[in-house]
Each structure stands twice: as structure tokens, then as C-alpha cells.
Amino acid sequence: MSRVYNFCSGPAALPEAVLKKAQAEMLDWHGAGVSVMEMSHRSTEFMSILASAKARLMRLLDISDDYEVLFVQGGASTLFAQIPANLTNGFDSACYLDTGAWSTKAIKEAKKYTKVNVVASSKEQNYTTVPAFADLELDESAAYLHVCPNETIGGLEFADLPETNLPIIADLSSTILSRKIDVSKYGMIYAGAQKNVGPAGVVICIIRKDLLARCSDSLPTVWNFANLAANDSMINTPPTFAIYLADLVFEWLEEQGGVEAIEAVNIAKAKVLYDFIDASDFYANPIDPAYRSRMNVPFTLADASLESLFLEESEAAGLRTLAGHRSVGGMRASIYNAMPMAGIEALIQFMREFENRHAQGK
Ligand SMILES: *Cc1c(COP(=O)(O)O)cnc(C)c1O
After folding, report:
1. Which of 6, 21, 206, 263 counts the most CB atoms within 10 A of its CB?
2. 129 is in an annotated binding site
3. What pLDDT does 359 receive?
4. CA of 306 relative to ligand 1 center, distance in Å
5. Is 88 flagged in the annotation as binding?
6. Is 152 annotated as a binding residue?
7. How far apart are CA 330 and CA 214, in angstroms?
8. What pLDDT, on a 0 to 100 scale, did the predictor assign at position 361?
9. CA 75 / ligand 1 centre spacing (Å)
10. Where in the chain do CATH 3.40.640.10 domains reside?
11. Percentages of the chain per state (helix, strand, coil), in multiples of 5
């Protein structure tokens, strides 16, 4: 058996230590005589896993009691609809910032539920930058402002938030737990697990409790955030194995020294890769340097006809899934928390050798 460096944008690499622990506990979880997949979600064993995952996340992100942590199903894409369905009740509109493909998808779904006010868009710049927050056309009577602070497909990330009294709702699917955030600045945070948290099947939601008052009884029962909060995310059977794996990833993160420690590693990883790309005439990254993503690093080759060869040879060199998203092409290295610095070094070494072999005559 050999494990490769996996640059997939999602489902993404998980820490090897977590996979090994899950393997060791697979047949008999802590003496229960069954795997986590086989136990009742209402058993004391699973309830302890759920409570542990919640408590660890609250510690890792320093989440106050003003917030509920929910484990929701359906992927982040379901939340694109579920959020306006729950949180625009009593309001005429919602504000959305458009910074790329995932913002656009969130906007499209929200329009099915409410009037959407796109407060700014960097579409004309091909989503290579973030609109100036000073120019945002914010309607302070809207239900909320939605942002996507890491555009996974474009490779664009921003850390600051606009100044507003609106609750800010952030899709942190590809950046949660990769950097320190101040949760108290958000009305709600949500993140599909399969980028930085665990396997697909669960979405982490952190929602300010006062917003739960907006959730209407007319919503489908399992879609209602207030119901989910009142029932400890267990109105029906939750994705138990995904929650268990998330708990193991949180535990691993605590062992690494928490979010601040992993952020330092993430900064270093992204820096060496971007520095290498910038120093080369053969590779290029199109994103405004102020907003380059630490998690998703897209790059192009000077000669696009070499792309399929690059992918073929990188795969053979044990560097998996470097193709860019089908909507943008090129390459993309997704380097979430679980990607070690050694993976970045192996990638750079491959890129250097590939350039040396193919850059002649250019
Ligand atoms: C992957 C991703 C999504 C979609 O996640 P699904 O779980 O596939 O619905 C949404 N937003 C962002 C920022 C993502 O990276």
C-alpha cells in the first residue's frame, strides 16, 4: 500500500493519523463491540461522540454560548437554499457579495426565496480580486449579508469582513479551521465537511442563537435551524460516521496545537508555493496577490498544450488530482490542513523538473 499526496479540492485528503485511528476503531469502537456506523444515533456512545465533536469545535474556534453548533445534512449546496428559507422570514431581501463560482451558486438559490441584492461583484475582473468594501451597496434593512471568504474554484480568499450591522453569513466550506477567525463577527458560519473537516455528508453550522427566532414553523421540519438546535441536530438520523470522523479530525487539530498553530503551517505552505510560481516564467497564478487563497492554489502553464502531460506525469509521480475545476481549467493544488509541508515540497520539485524539461525553446 502506498499513500500519495492528494491535492483534491474535495473530498480532500484527511490526516493519516485520523484514518489510522478510525481503522483501529472500525470493528469495535471503545469496547462497544460494534463500529460507529452500526450504533444507534441515540445510544449513549454516539451521543458522547456528538457532544465531543461539538465541544472540540467550540474550543478550537473559541465559540461563545451565544451560538449553536449544528450538524446539518445535504452539503453546503443545500444550505444555499436552507439559509434564505430560514433567515429571510420577515424581511424583503438579502444582500450577497459575489466573488466567484460559489457566491454565484448561493445567489442563484437565494433568488428562489427572496429578493437578492448583489452588493458588489468582481465578475468583470474574472473574479481575480475582491470588490472594495467601501463601495458596497448595503441595504441595512436586509435579512443578512452573505459572503464566501474562500472561493475554492477561483483560489481567492479574503480575511476581513465588511462593516455592517447586518448579520454576516459566511460559507467557510474550504477555509474553516485553517485560520483564526473571530466568530462573534458572524451571524452564521457554515462549512461542508469534505474540504477541511472530514468526509462528505455533514455540514458544520455555527449560528447566533437570536437568529433562530426567524425560523418559521412552515419550513420542512428537518430544514428548520431552530428545530435542529432544539433537537441537538438529531431530528432524524444524522450522518453519524461523518460526525465521528469530524471529531477525530478536531482531536488531531488540537494535538497539532490548534487553529493558530495550523495557520502558521498553512501560511508557510502557501508562501513557498506562490513564491515558486511567481519566480517562474513557466507557471502563473492570476489572482490579485492581496487575495490569494492559502487553501486552493490555481496555476496555469505558459504552454497550455502541456496540461494533459503535466497531469499524467504528476499523477505518476504520486501527486494526485492537480486538475483545475472543469469550469476554469488549468491546474489547482488544494492544500488544506491535512496536507503536510512535505507534500508542497514534492509538488514544487516536480514542477521544477517539469519546467526544466519543457521550458526550452519558449
Ligand atoms: C465545495 C464547496 C461547496 C459545495 O459543497 P457541497 O457539499 O458539494 O454542496 C460550497 N461552497 C464552497 C465554498 C465550497 O468549497
Report:
1. 206
2. no
3. 82
4. 29
5. no
6. yes
7. 43
8. 52
9. 7
10. 17-256
11. 40, 15, 40
Atom of ligand 1 nearest to the CA of 151: 13
Q: Which residues are catalytic?
A: 102, 171, 195
Identify the pLDDT of residue 360. Answer: 66
**Span(s) in the chain for CATH 3.90.1150.10:** 257-358
CATH 3.40.640.10 fits domain 17-256: yes
121 by DSSP, 3-state: which? Answer: strand
Which residues, at least 6 apart from 138, have a Cβ–Cβ distance to it below 8 Å?
95, 119, 145, 162, 164, 166
Query: What Rg do the C-alpha atoms of the chain give, in angstroms?
Result: 21
Q: Are 294 and 266 in contact (CB under 8 A)?
A: yes
Residue 328 C-alpha cell reads as 476554469
Q: Ligand 1: which atom is nearest the Cα of residue 148?
A: 13
For 349, half-sphere exposure in the C-beta direction (CA atoms, 13 angstrom radius) is 9
Tell me the CA–centroid distance for residue 103 and ligand 1, in Å. 10
C-alpha 40/C-alpha 49 separation (Å) is 12
Instruction: Locate the DSSP E strands across the chain.
Output: 5-6, 67-72, 93-98, 115-121, 145-147, 150-151, 156-157, 168-171, 188-192, 203-208, 283-284, 296-301, 319-320, 331-334
The answer to whether the beta carbons of residues 117 and 93 sit under 8 Å apart is: yes
Q: Which of 72, 53, 52, 60 is nearest to 173 (CA)?
A: 72
Residue 233 assigned to a binding site: no
Confidence of residue 235 (pLDDT cuts 50, 70, 90): very high
CA–CA dist 322, 5 (Å, integer): 10
Residue nearest to atom 5 of ligand 1 (CA): 76
pLDDT in tens, 140-185: 999 999 999 999 999 999 999 999 999 999 999 999 999 999 999 9
Mean pLDDT of 335-352: 98
Residues near ligand 1 with C-beta < 6 Å?
10, 75-77, 102, 148, 152, 171, 173-174, 192, 195
In CATH, what is the architecture of 257-358?
Answer: Alpha-Beta Complex (3.90)
Task: Kindly give the distance from the C-alpha atom of residue 77 to the centroid of ligand 1, in angstroms, as a whole number.
Answer: 6
The pLDDT mean for the chain works out to 96
State which ligand 1 atom lies nearest to the alpha carbon of 172.
13
